[in-house]
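User: Please predict structures.

Assistant: First:
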Amino acid sequence: MTTSAAAPARHALEQVCSAVGLNADGAEPVRLAENQIWRLTGQRVIVRIARAGQGAAARREVRVARWLAENNVPTVRLVDVQQPIEADGRPVTFWEELPPHEHGTPVDVAHLLRQLHALPAPDLDLGYLDPYVRITERLQAATTLDEADRAWLHCLHQDLAAAWADRPTGRPDCAVHGDAWPGNLIRTISGPLMMDLERFSLGPPEWDLVSTAVRTKTTGAVTAAEYDAFCAAYGYDVTKWAGYEILAGARELRMVTYAAQHAASNPEWADQAQHRVDCLRGRRGPRPWNWRGIM
């Protein structure tokens, strides 16, 4: 972001910090995009200014973080200030800065999910899991794909949504993270820790488990031995469940449309987005397809 464009963002940061008694002097931008992330110098505080219209999601994330803390789940912690607050219609939350960290291992992910899924459902309005949230919008934005591929993905979306509505019975619903991959379930010097809580909802625990299974069966990012260790640590293999293909299909569709959406504004990702579509359409042989990460 240019200096001139960053000035309004810094002004908003100064306003919200003043409102809760924090000092924004010398704050460093971590990421200034659709969501703005700032680090407050010398205070070990991260300020997240979300995009407009996300007030309900921010309030839910704050409630979830407090609930996880009350239940001793290792997770990113809120700063002890009144929150969220708003700046120009944008919700703002304040978090303790994390120590140095790296992506979690499959076993780290399994341990965190096992602890989360064992908790009684919270008395919070989390809403029910929607595996297809924003898929339609992503496809509309996927301008690097041709019309035939986009039409095919729309049909796949409809077929998967119908299958989801009539999916086989699985394990009892519980609170689920919603986006349980190693970038969100990380490892610090103190052990594994959960972050990025905005997709929390009530739903089938299989949805959280499918992420690691797909990283093994579809993308090749997790080895068979690592997946076996993940299943042993959690105590269940989701690929043996009759509904696995439905949820795996939803996760694959999310990964394809995510890449396609961002390829529209980042041409260097267009080849990977097209490759993922080609894989789903049977043009690249059987799984695993060894998809490369983007962003």
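Second:
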Amino acid sequence: MTRLVVISAGLSAPSSTRLLADRLTEAVVREIGPVEIDVIELRPLARPLADQMLTGFPGPELQEAFDAVAAADALVVVTPVFSASYSGLFKMFIDALPRDVLTGKPVLLGATAGSGRHSLVIEHALRPLFAYLRAVIVPTGVFAATDDFGRDADLSGRITRAARELAGMLGRQLAVNRPRSVEEEFADPTPFEELMRRAGG
């Protein structure tokens, strides 16, 4: 089953960041059907993250979160905006992740803020960060200011478009990684040159 990891860096309870993460997750599930979902709330991991930064060793809670990210087929990540960029807690978690764990993983980016003045945060802060980590970034990022939750039609449209893009990426990725059946091999044999290339010949 497809594994989706949702990372929410909201600091309050209830949190608009978690609300956006939940809505993005629901939209992805509508597009691709049943999935195994792991939600990583960063607020309870603040102390373990600080300890890991000081000692270089993740505690059990943090290691469990790292393992979930490593095993994910795709991620939904949402951060609140602080000082015109992602939150420090969010960056601590990303910095603590094992090297190359995000390489090739489809990622849907989201951000929340009190004002629409921060609407470009995904483009100027989040997208370059995940490009550097070699993730495969969904073209549509979803930013939601406080007022956007009141204009639900516009926000819902952006959420649906982003979810469809992530579902499309996942479909292509799973098709590439899925072993071909015997029937498929007989119907369309893999060329000998390609078999030799895969074998390193």
